[in-house]
């Protein structure tokens, strides 16, 4: 082929590409996922993708607006999913999806994963599994209208309450193929808000609920004071407007009225703009407060406006804990009734904070009630820390705070009840370890990584947990991990990366050396703890367990792991229960763990990098830096305590070398809340 011919063919290809782009309507939003890997042309993946797309909407019997297909075998398997808005007719649905199928591969010509969103439909494909999985919890696109609402606060509250009500209906679904709800609500006749929420129907109820809750969380970021906006995620989307944007004849919409008193503005605000009010269609949207989560989210939406320099100021008095706060306060008598007056039969355990009780609220919700120890000198501060933090945090891999009680001498936190206790209950008990096969352990590792990434990067405050360990990872009924116990957490300014502290808190064995020895606290401190935790999950052993490398040398888990890695025998640290696990995945996780526990904090990856490494097996990993010293931190804890003899650091009872299989206690002091 001559050079001229090659140039001519390239120009023809470019012209064809441009014609495709101009012939199709633009997406409202699209994304090409570079982090998910690329493919070449020609290749097996490219062929599988083209074959899948060419037949995607060929089944005209599908009249419910949802398509999901796969083609090919791993590693060149392609999965694709398309969904139309719940009120779109079948012909219009296929037309919208066909536009997306034509346009998206041209906008993302080499990426294995891509996502496109129109008003009437969304379409995505990827090499990873996607069906029935709520993925990328922290991925979203949000945007608001340009027009301001007349009474912004009142309108915003109306829209948010409406969306929370609709998510309760959408998660249940209408038949097997729809998880969508739409409607409006009225209070007075000044403004109107209409809302629609929808999940991909392959999600279960809890995942749909979580996805929509995560989406509603972002409304203040996108649509503050606006008459409309939307949040788009891979598995769900929400939208609200001051006009009827969906077809009520083809979707089961509802109208849920409230009294005007439910939306009455604060006494010092004005609801009038003089004679300049724009005429609008009737009806205001609002719903009854349907869930505890709705109240929590409203709390930090209102509080967010008071945020300065990335951190909300904590007052030195108890004003923020008074019942006038938007957060749900539960009275003491209700909690006593729920826990049978804190009976021993309902006692779940006890830590440094105090005992934890199982309870059932009047609405049937099972909860865990955490009681502040009256003898704890740091109790009040820990209580405030957890309330202020958890009220602002919302992520699938963080434990959810449902309410609190501040009455008489009692200070109580009410959490969602997680039936499977903590990770250490399964991990370090020979009778329970078999329940955690490699699939479950790998899921737990990735879930913890997502939760830490949210704390470090994606939450509105940068938060360092400082006491990440197996006993602070709670497991739900499906063994999904949730990070708990924020009593020792430290808040950072958004642009702050490190601070020094004179008081060291945490659990020896999990704490980074620069933190123990010099009080240097950063996000890399949590990364180190995560690395230790991963080694524990893989080995089924506590970090202070003793391993005999030879007749004269005994090592703790970290140094035993590093020694075996260096000698090419890393499989020696793997729990025998995992013998049927994927060896490449297990070795890769050991590699990642050793990167996280490197002595120099600057050498450790961020949690964003860790999450990428855990989810992208095509990327190569750097080698961990050689450890200069083999130090058993558990055996040298006395030296570290002397270095901080004024720190009042206390160790967990099971960190003194005990081999108890009981979940560990957390008898810890905490540092000051704010960076100095």
UniProtKB/TrEMBL annotation:
Composition-biased stretches (Basic and acidic residues): 642-657
Localization (cell): Membrane
Any one GO CC term of the record: plasma membrane
Signal sequence residues: 1-23
Keywords from the named record: ATP-binding, Glycoprotein, Kinase, Membrane, Nucleotide-binding, Receptor, Repeat, Serine/threonine-protein kinase, Signal, Transferase, Transmembrane, Transmembrane helix
Domain Gnk2-homologous span(s) in chain numbering: 27-130, 137-245
Claim: ATP-binding is one of the keywords in the record: yes
Ranges where the Protein kinase domain occurs: 342-618
Superkingdom of the organism of origin: Eukaryota
InterPro entries: GNK2, GNK2_sf, Kinase-like_dom_sf, Prot_kinase_dom, Ser-Thr/Tyr_kinase_cat_dom, Ser/Thr_kinase_AS
Ranges of compositional bias, category Polar residues: 658-669
Record's bilayer topology term: Single-pass membrane protein
A GO biological-process term: response to oxidative stress
GO molecular function, one term: protein serine/threonine kinase activity
Pfam families the record matches: PK_Tyr_Ser-Thr, Stress-antifung
Keyword presence, Glycoprotein: yes
Main subcellular location of this protein, as a coarse class: membrane
Catalytic reaction equation(s): L-threonyl-[protein] + ATP = O-phospho-L-threonyl-[protein] + ADP + H(+); L-seryl-[protein] + ATP = O-phospho-L-seryl-[protein] + ADP + H(+)
Transmembrane segments: 283-302
Region feature Disordered, mapped onto this chain: 640-676
PANTHER family for the chain: CYSTEINE-RICH RECEPTOR-LIKE PROTEIN KINASE 29 (PTHR27002:SF1073), RECEPTOR-LIKE SERINE/THREONINE-PROTEIN KINASE SD1-8 (PTHR27002)
Protein name: Cysteine-rich receptor-like protein kinase
């Amino acid at each position: 082929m001559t050079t001229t011919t090659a140039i001519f063919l390239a120009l023809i290809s470019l012209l064809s590409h441009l014609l495709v782009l101009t012939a199709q309507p633009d997406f409202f939003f699209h994304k090409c996922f570079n982090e998910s890997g690329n493919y070449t042309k020609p290749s097996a993946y490219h062929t599988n993708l083209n074959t899948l797309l060419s037949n995607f909407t060929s089944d005209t019997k599908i009249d419910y607006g949802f398509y999901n297909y796969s083609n090919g075998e791993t590693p060149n398997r392609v999965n694709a999913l398309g969904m139309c808005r719940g009120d779109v007719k079948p012909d219009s649905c296929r037309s919208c999806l066909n536009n997306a199928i034509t346009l998206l591969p041209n906008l993302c010509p080499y990426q294995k994963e891509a996502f496109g969103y129109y008003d009437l439909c969304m379409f995505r494909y990827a090499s990873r599994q996607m069906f029935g999985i709520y993925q990328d919890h922290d991925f979203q696109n949000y945007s608001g209208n340009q027009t301001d609402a007349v009474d912004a606060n009142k309108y915003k509250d109306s829209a948010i309450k409406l969306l929370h009500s609709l998510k309760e209906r959408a998660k249940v679904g209408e038949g097997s193929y729809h998880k969508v709800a739409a409607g409006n609500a009225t209070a007075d006749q000044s403004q109107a808000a209409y809302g629609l929420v929808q999940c991909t129907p392959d999600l279960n109820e809890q995942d749909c609920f979580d996805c929509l809750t995560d989406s509603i969380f972002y409304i203040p970021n996108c649509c503050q004071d606006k008459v409309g906006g939307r949040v788009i995620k891979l598995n769900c989307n929400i939208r609200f407007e001051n006009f009827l944007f969906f077809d009520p004849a083809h979707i089961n919409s509802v109208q849920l009225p409230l009294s005007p008193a439910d939306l009455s503005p604060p006494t010092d605000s004005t609801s009038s703009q003089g004679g300049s009010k724009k005429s609008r269609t009737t009806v205001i949207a609002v719903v009854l407060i349907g869930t505890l989560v709705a109240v929590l989210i409203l709390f930090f939406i209102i509080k967010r406006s008071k945020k300065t320099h990335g951190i909300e100021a904590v007052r030195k008095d108890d004003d923020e804990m008074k019942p006038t706060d938007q957060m749900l306060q539960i009275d003491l008598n209700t909690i006593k009734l729920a826990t049978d007056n804190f009976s021993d039969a309902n006692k779940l355990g006890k830590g440094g904070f105090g005992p934890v009780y199982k309870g059932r609220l009047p609405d049937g919700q099972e909860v865990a009630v955490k009681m502040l120890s009256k003898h704890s000198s740091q109790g009040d501060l820990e209580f405030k820390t957890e309330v202020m933090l958890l009220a602002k945090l919302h992520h699938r891999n963080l434990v959810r705070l449902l309410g609190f009680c501040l009455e008489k001498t009692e200070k109580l936190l009410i959490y969602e009840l997680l039936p499977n206790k903590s990770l250490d209950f399964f991990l370090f008990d020979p009778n329970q370890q078999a329940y955690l096969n490699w699939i479950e352990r790998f899921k737990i590792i990735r879930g913890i990584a997502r939760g830490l990434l949210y704390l470090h990067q994606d939450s509105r405050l940068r938060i360092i947990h400082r006491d990440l360990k197996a006993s602070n990872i709670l497991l739900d009924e499906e063994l999904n991990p949730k990070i708990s116990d924020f009593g020792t957490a430290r808040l950072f300014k958004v642009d702050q990366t490190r601070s020094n502290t004179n008081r060291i808190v945490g659990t020896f064995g999990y704490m980074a050396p620069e933190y123990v020895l010099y009080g240097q606290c950063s996000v890399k401190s949590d990364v180190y703890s995560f690395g230790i935790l991963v080694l524990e999950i893989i080995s089924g052993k506590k970090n202070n367990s003793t391993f005999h490398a030879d007749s004269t040398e005994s090592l703790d888990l970290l140094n035993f792991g590093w020694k075996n890695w260096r000698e090419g025998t890393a499989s020696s640290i793997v729990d025998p229960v995992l013998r049927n696990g994927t060896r490449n995945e297990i070795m890769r996780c050991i590699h990642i763990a050793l990167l996280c526990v490197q002595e120099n904090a600057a050498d450790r990856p961020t949690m964003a990098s860790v999450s990428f490494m855990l989810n992208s097996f095509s990327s190569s990993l750097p080698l961990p830096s050689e450890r200069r010293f083999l130090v058993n931190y558990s055996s040298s804890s006395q030296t570290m305590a002397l270095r901080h003899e004024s720190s009042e650091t206390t160790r967990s009872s099971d960190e003194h070398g005990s081999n108890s299989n009981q979940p560990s206690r957390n008898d810890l002091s905490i540092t000051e809340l704010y960076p100095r």
